Amino acid sequence: MMFNVPQFIDVEDKVAGPLTVKQLFWMMGMGAAILVVSVLFPGPATYIIAVPIVIVFVLLAFYRPNGQPLISYVIQAFFFLFRPKVLMWRRPTAIPSPVAMKRVEKTTPIQARTVTQDEIRRVAKMMDGR
User: Fold this and answer.
1) Domain contains 62
2) Is residue 6 assigned to a domain?
3) Which of 22, 36, 111, 127 sits 20 to 30 Å CA-CA off 96?
4) How many angstroms separate the most distant Cα atoms in the chain?
């Protein structure tokens, strides 16, 4: 074999124990956010505010729905909410104009026609090709 072919190129490298670079940055961001909260809100309020922060950052670091990072879903949801919606096709609304409505004449209802046995036999022979 002349050349080594790289394998597992879609797996990120681990830099700090089991954490990748992105996960490490999310954990550092979580630590910084908790530090800011602990300085701004001393006492038990720190724990009440810190728990949702920890949950959000852990989800952003480790949760991967459908193999994609959660941050990509958050960004796409943001774009969906704030970008204008483009309609590719819209059903045409046909509103009859008053002029067209005036031209319509009332017609008499069609009277029911009685069909005889001879006419049915004649049509059946035509359909059979005789």
Assistant:
1) yes
2) no
3) 111
4) 102
Distance between CA 73 and CA 107 in Å, rounded? 61
Two structure tokens written together for 13: 């490298």
Q: How many domains is the chain built from?
A: 1
Name the burial class of residue 123, with classes exposed (0-12), middle (13-18) and buried (19+) by CB atoms within 10 angstroms of its CB. Answer: exposed
Contacts 24+ apart (CB under 8 A), 18-23: 22/61, 22/69, 23/61, 23/62
Range of the domain at 69: 14-82
Tokens standing for 27? 């954990």
pTM of the model: 0.58
Residue type, 89: W
Phi, psi at 69, each rounded to 5°: -65, 150
Q: What is the mean pLDDT of residues 63-71?
A: 91
